[in-house]
Amino acid sequence: MAGNSEHLETKLIHAGEPDPRIGGAVSIPIFQSAMFEYGGEASYHEIKYIRLNNTPNHTALHRKLASLENAEAALVTSSGMAAISTALLTLLQSGDHFLAQSCLYGGTYDLVTRDLGLYGISFDFIDGADPGSWTAQLKPNTKAIYVETMANPLMDVPDLKGVIEFARRHGLVTLVDNTFASPVNFRPAEWGFDLSLHSCTKYLNGHSDIVAGAVIGKADLVERITHKLNLLGGTLDPHACFLLHRGIKTLALRVRHQNDCALALATFLAEHPAVRMVNYPGLESHPAHAIAQTMFDGCSGMLSFELHGGVAAAERFMSNVQLPIVAPSLGGIETLVTRPATTSHSGLTPEERQRAGISEELIRVSVGIEHPQDLIADFTQALA
Question: Looking at 202, 339, 353, 364, which residue is catalytic?
Fold first, then answer.
């Protein structure tokens, strides 16, 4: 059957599709019904109801997402943060402790540092590149370890093999935010991660028109998280499910072009005299380039850089570019630029950003699907 193909491109189109097709429809319809006729379901979580994430739109996405990462199960949520917060609140309870990579997406950082403590959950930050230092952070009540495939916004790549080996030795659940890589470039289940988390708002949807999230991984953990989500209510609307389902089908085409375009742009920036530094794991100069080459099929369309001249130079550059849109978020078909200090990481204090290595002048770029030569030409005139 086509949906069982080993090739990602074919899975994107065929995996999880209704069989037989609903009314012969080539594109799955939108099931805009809050509830469905009772069919004798024995469990509360099996009753067909939008909030329980089990309409035909949800189940098709669940099957497809699990297939893309060669995982056992998947769950879609109302946002990436709904996926992250529900997963952590499912796996951790009052009195538990976990380890987290020190550089994280701003929303995740705020959740970890400001909110989980209210539930009696404690944490310690770890240097993702230094597995030898992690043992000192362990406690008898440590239950999980949380990292990002490529850290937002500095593009740090943790020692991912080290994470898996460390977790196995100490009986920890492994969670990785795989948003920046996407299943095209990295499939966590293949390497032994328990759970992969996504903001589907980004690459998986790819068109900057919905907010969604996903949890992908071991079936028993996904089921527990599903039950928690059913009660917390972070459900994805069927129309958003439809748009995500449609957007996913071009994922491989989009991301592979974005990989190539970002590498070309990062190479250009690294050689430009106005640029002080570039963060992109596809560059040989990146500290984790060897890890990226070993474990990734591509280094994504995300990069960040700093200019000589500080914030003033960064603001001038962003006002001069013509093709990129100055806006938060990432992973869409259009190139976006932003200063994380004013958007994704504005919830951190200046001191917290400084400790994480996020300067006020750092510019983050989400490369779209424009032609790389046009982007480089535009960046050239903006830098001039």
Answer: 202
For the beta carbon of residue 347, count every other beta carbon within 10 angstroms. 14
Rounded-to-integer distance, Cα 20 and Cα 30, Å: 16
Is 202 a catalytic site residue?
yes
Q: Are 299 and 288 in contact (CB under 8 A)?
A: no
Q: Which of 177, 194, 203, 339 is catalytic?
A: 177
Q: pLDDT digits over 300-341, tens only?
A: 999 999 999 999 999 999 999 999 999 999 999 999 999 999
Q: Domains of the chain (ranges plus CATH)?
A: 2-248 (3.40.640.10), 251-383 (3.90.1150.10)
Is 224 noted as a catalytic residue in this protein?
no
Question: Is 110 tagged catalytic?
Answer: no
pLDDT tens digits, residue range 60-105?
999 999 999 999 999 999 999 999 999 999 999 999 999 999 999 9
| C-beta of residue 281 within 8 angstroms of C-beta of residue 289 | yes
Strand partners, 275: 307
The catalytic residue among 105, 109, 146, 203 is 105
Q: What's the CA angle centered on 49, arms 44 and 50, to 5 degrees?
A: 130
Contacts 24+ apart (CB under 8 A), 345-353: 345/105, 345/106, 345/109, 345/153, 346/106, 347/106, 347/107, 347/109, 347/110, 348/106, 348/109, 348/110, 352/109, 352/113
| pTM of the model as a whole | 0.95
Q: Is 156 a catalytic residue?
A: no
